Amino acid sequence: MAFQSRRFIGFLERFNRTRYHSHYLSSPTSFFPFPFPFSTLDDQPSPIHIKNEINPKERFVRDQLFELLPIPRNSSAPNPFRYSENPTKQVAEFRAVDGFLLPEEKLRGVFLQKLKGKTAIEQALTNVGIELSLDIVARVVNTGNLGGEAMVMFFNWAIKNPAITKDINGYCVIIKALGRRKFFKFVTEILRDMRTEGVSLDLETLSIVLDSFVRAHRVSKAIQMFGNVEEFGLKCNTECLNVLLQCMCHRSHVGAANSFLNSVKGKIPFDVMTYNIVIGGWSKLGRVSEVESVLKAMLVDGFSPDCLTFGYLIEGLGGAGQIDDAVEIFEHMKDKGCVPDTGTYNAMIFNSISVGDFEGCMKYYKSMLSNNSDPDVITYTKLISALLKARKVADALELFDEMLSRGLIPCTGTVTSFLEPLCSYGPPHAAMMIYKKARKVGCRISLSAYKLLLMRLSRFGKCGMLLNMWDEMQECGYSSDMEVYEYVINGLCNIGQLENAVLVMEESLRKGFCPSRLIYSKLNNKLLALNKVERAYKLYLKIKDARRDENARRYWRANGWHF
């Protein structure tokens, strides 16, 4: 009996020390709800000394957490269960621990605590101590994985802050976020709150609500919302009808839009834009017969087609492959009292590009300039993209210069679309010209564009340009990931700068990025070829540790430990 009791006590000691070490489990008696006289188990009681030790496996996990999270090793997390005489100091300790988080991450983290009650959640949100703004509110509800109830609760707390005004702009943010995630029940709740607060619905907000329903294929719900629009401060008139038709045609529900248009005919007045929206929807699908039927109904109602109507008609004929008919309609536009505008010329240029007629598209482009119709960003984007795909780089660069000289600044995605084909063939000279000119006029370059340029410069061994590009990327606020480090290492290896390549690889390892086996093998083989065995061996040991840590992180994330 004494031998078994010693084994049981030893088991409790090991269990307490290695697995559930806590201030509340300082003795074996804490496992039992009643006092257990250990002295009665043995005539010679052995005192149990629980040492404050850490298991080697736990120490390894702790060290990995310190590497992943920017927390000092000598810092101790505050005990949330310990009473503090200075609550301000305790809040400051919590803020020091989560100081590396973004403001929106801190606010979303409140809902991960599973607090009970609205008052507790709002108090926790207030204790975060964030200087709230509408931009932060938008980032909280647009990113992460908050549920509909949590999003509404957060927004209701946010609008109580003096920095957030109760106007239509704030409500637009939460409606768009809820609609994007198909939380339609809460969208309706927010609309009722708007009516209670005296905030009237405008056409932009109505477009957001209707588009959310149509995008989720709930067209009938969108039509029902349109019928009840007067409850939210809008009139069921032509403008609201055009908003509904635009949402339906934009999401390719053109047939439903056409049917609804016929059903409300005579109940709601139409205008030219009403018919143009439906004609544009059919033209994008290449349904020429439906375009003609809607055009006939438009003429019967006494509306004359405008340039937008002809543009949609030409676009629809081009999509159906009837290029000759489109050219004929374009040439007879002036006879019908309609002078072609930029949109009409764009339609003719797009049709020429679709059949590979670059001479024709340049002819219409020059005709546009001679007729005092100014090209827009869409004109140049289509022309330059088509020329780059056809590898007519010189013509594309000339048009790009004309585009910038007219004060037309391309957006970030447009510049990236220009660089993609250029980085798939030929040297990086043309891509660098577009990059430098776009950056000079103030266009923001995307991270994808920087990676494309780094990849191309690395392949051609342009090491100086590559390092400058890397610095400029970091100046723009982009952080380097494993893909960026691999491009830099590969470029340095291609020109023989192995020591610099090793330094870059060590930097990537310190940041927690483990390079691919292909890049490491390339660098390792070049080091061995130059008889730098010791350098290669030291790098091998670091790579070995990095891969072990990466496998550990994968295991943690697979078990739900997301750091």
Automatic annotation (TrEMBL):
PPR repeat residues: 202-236, 271-305, 306-340, 341-375, 376-410, 481-515
Pfam families per UniProt: PPR, PPR_2
Gene3D superfamilies in the cross-refs: Tetratricopeptide repeat domain
Keywords, comma-separated and alphabetical: Repeat
Family label: Belongs to the PPR family. P subfamily.
Protein name from the UniProt record: Pentatricopeptide repeat-containing protein
